[in-house]
Amino acid sequence: MSSTTIARRSKAAGFDRLREPLTGREVFRARAACGVEVWVAPMPGYRRCYAMMTTRYGSMDTHLPDGTRLPDGIAHFLEHKMFQTPEGDVFDLYAKRGASANAFTTFTHTSYLFSSTSRFEENLDTLLETMDDITTDEVGIAREKGIIGQELAMYDDDPGWRGYFNLLQALYRRHPVRIDIGGTSETIAPIDADILERAHAAYYNPRNMVLTAAGAVDPAAVLAQVDATLGTRGRGRRHRRRATAEPRGVARRELSESLSISRPHALLGLKDRPGRGVRGRIRRRIQGSMLMEILFGDGGRIQAPLYRSGLVDDTLSAGYEAETDYAFALVSAEVDQVDPYRRALLKALRAAAKDGLTDEEVERCRRRFLGRHLRVFNGPEPCAHWMLALALEGAEPGALVESLRGATRAALQRHLRELVAAPCAWSIVTPRE
Fold first, then answer.
1. Is 206 exposed, middle or buried (0-12, 13-18, 19+ CB in 10 A)?
2. Which residue in 144, 269, 355, 364 has the most C-beta neighbors within 10 A?
3. Residue 26 — φ and ψ, nearest 5°?
């Protein structure tokens, strides 16, 4: 446990007091009596409060603990159903108090959140109580299938969404990251009350959940409220996702689809190897993200000449994603001509790997990333999301800064050469004739 991140433990409140090394900001971490992991960041001077309850259950969790196969899209379906109660829609309850609420599902987790400037305790009670139970009447389930079906139809017409998931299906043969988070109308059709209740019991238990809160909040009061609302008896167990034995090669070199768009969308994916352990995974993710910034950020090594040549415009973007058992880099752009762009992009990547990076490029990018990290503490929302990322990763507050400082030019060049040599796939979305 690093001395730069752990200042001391407050025995009376039951919290670890953690310190972020760049700003010195304190965050508080505890385990509630019921099993919920609680992270709180008091932000003096703010009136706004932001709280988020997260379960370690996402679209990649395709089976119950007993091995039962779950329908694709059920994690997202559960997200919708959790807001329905016998008394009505929980959104209406938040709105009556002047709070705004939302939820989202990712590959690895599902989060429920609210933001308010008053009546924080009432809103937090609602958030906690909502997670603790589920309403599974058949009429409501049928209605939700219709609503989600319309949502899925909207995404089917979205070139960015289609291009992204087509790329994942091309990159991965077995890994569930290739499955659309919302599933399809066909996969959600068999969902019934029984399977929803079993999934809720397995994954919406206190020991599998994280509460993060930031803003005008008091750590001891938040922890006491969790204990009062959810009880003191630990329930369930934490979900630990099993790794998928994914082959090294891609499933397909290219996957194309036609939609009603004006210009082609071209996405390149580079199938990377994930880092090992928490530190290795964070280090790998930071290095991959820095490389995408150096090469494809504004004025970047590859972005600038491609832009000057007219092959790309401001739609060019790049990113890097990594979890326990998968990692990939992504380059996306709307282009007028696909083939000239592809040839130029691949040539530029090979040249960058051969020529190497400069100390100036690496240091400029490091400072840019440190600046982005500092902006996390400009408001309750980004601070709460930062704490959630730490909790899900099992990391300490200084992990990101430590990885940024350790990202040397030699390490980045080595990673770049590995990326350029990695198996790759293309996703092309073309205008429908």
1. buried
2. 269
3. -90, 135
Give DSSP secondary structure letters for 203-268: HSSGGGEEEEEEES--HHHHHHHHHHHH-SS--S----PPPP---SS-S-SEEEEEES-SS-EEEE
Name the token pair of 269. 């994916």
Residue span of the structural domain in which 264 resides: 254-431
Residues 347 and 282 in one domain: yes
Q: Which of 20, 26, 37, 79 is catalytic?
A: 79
Same domain, 217 and 290: no
* pLDDT value of position 118: 94
* pLDDT category of residue 322 using cuts at 50, 70 and 90: very high
Average pLDDT over all residues of the chain: 93
- How many Å from the N-terminal Cα to the C-terminal Cα in the chain? 59
Model confidence over 98-142: pLDDT tens digits?
Answer: 999 999 999 999 999 999 999 999 999 999 998 888 988 888 899
195 and 258 co-located in one domain: no
> For residue 101, what is the DSSP state?
E
What CATH number is attached to the domain comprising 386? 3.30.830.10
Rounded CA gap, 21 and 206, in Å?
Answer: 30
pLDDT at 13: 58
Pair 211, 392: CB distance under 8 Å: no
Strand partners, 106: none
How would you class 378 by CB atoms within 10 Å of its CB: exposed for 0-12, middle for 13-18, buried for 19 or more?
exposed
Say whether both 152 and 40 belong to one domain: yes
Contacts of 93 (CB under 8 A, 6+ apart): 87, 126
Residue 245 belongs to a domain = no
Domain boundary among 173, 196, 230: 230
Rounded to two decimals, what is the model's pTM? 0.92
* 8 pLDDT above the threshold of 70: no
Residues 151-185 pLDDT 10s: 999 999 999 999 999 999 999 999 999 999 999 99
Instruction: Give backbone dihedrals phi and psi of 22, rounded to 5 degrees, phi first.
Output: -75, -45
Q: Quick check: helix, strand or coil at residue 354?
A: helix
**Does the annotation mark 79 as catalytic?**
yes
Domain boundary among 162, 195, 230: 230
**φ/ψ (deg, to 5) at 52:** -145, 130
Give the pLDDT confidence score for residue 12 in this predicted structure: 37
* Residue 286 sits in the same domain as residue 171: no
Report the number of distinct structural domains present in the chain: 2
Q: Is 426 exposed, middle or buried (0-12, 13-18, 19+ CB in 10 A)?
A: buried
